[in-house]
Specification:
alpha/beta; Rossmann fold; 7 helices; 9 strands; 31% helix; globular
């Protein structure tokens, strides 16, 4: 029997609630760093805002003409009134016109959704010409992730205790393909350079190596930055 739209939304909302709607502070720091390095400005959307911790940071940066946040979770009661909160099932298209934003952030959300390729197409639709999307997701090519796959049969962040809020494990190749297929012509990838040891995630490779161990095998997260090409002149 096919799930009704009401029950499907309820299931997705329950999964979002299980995630607690938060990410790591060092990832928020990384997003702020990338925004400043790329001189991003204009209208920004925090896609999958959860409890709004990153959203508040964006507002306090004082560099965006407008700040919007979208989530299936309710708007936090203490969210500043300047933020446009979009109540949305993130697995569905946002009720927003094409080319509504200059920047979209998707912090630790894309792997929680059912169809990452549809999400990438939605980002492309929502972005204006020359717009930028930044996406982060667990790095499933790290030593820790591969060790879990070898021993347990699943990547470290995608076991039974993480399901159903973490649904879709993605590799760098997957991210590159889904962004390219959505129409993004400029794609770059970075690693968080913060990664936990197998069975001891609170102890990082960076700590035991004095920062020497970094990159793909020693980072728990990968970030993708993609840009929508400028419109061709008429």
């Amino acid at each position: 029997m096919r799930l009704s739209e009401t029950s499907l939304r309820a299931r997705r909302k329950a999964a979002a609630e299980a995630s607690a709607g938060i990410s790591a502070e060092f990832l928020y720091d990384k997003y702020e760093e990338l925004i400043r390095e790329r001189h991003l400005s204009g209208s920004i959307l925090d896609f999958g805002a959860g409890q709004g911790f990153l959203t508040r940071r964006l507002l306090h940066m004082n560099r965006f003409s407008s700040v919007a946040a979208a989530d299936i979770l309710p708007k936090p009661s203490d969210m500043p009134s300047q933020v446009v909160w979009i109540d949305a099932d993130l697995d569905e298209s946002l009720v927003r016109p094409d080319e509504s934003f200059d920047v979209i952030l998707c912090c630790e959300v894309i792997h929680c959704l059912e169809n990452p390729r549809a999400i990438a197409r939605e980002f492309f639709r929502l972005l204006r010409s020359n717009g930028t999307v930044i996406i982060s997701t667990p790095n499933n090519e790290s030593v820790r992730a591969i060790a879990a796959l070898w021993v347990r049969g699943h990547f470290v962040e995608f076991g039974e205790t993480s399901y159903p809020f973490q649904k879709t494990a993605l590799l760098k190749t997957d991210l590159d393909r889904l962004l390219r297929e959505a129409g993004f012509e400029r794609r770059e990838f970075f690693y968080s350079n913060r990664g936990g040891l197998p069975r001891k995630p609170s102890l990082t490779w960076q700590r035991i190596s004095g920062g020497w161990l970094a990159g793909k095998r020693f980072s728990d997260h990968i970030l993708a930055i993609a840009q929508k090409a400028p419109s061709s002149p008429l």
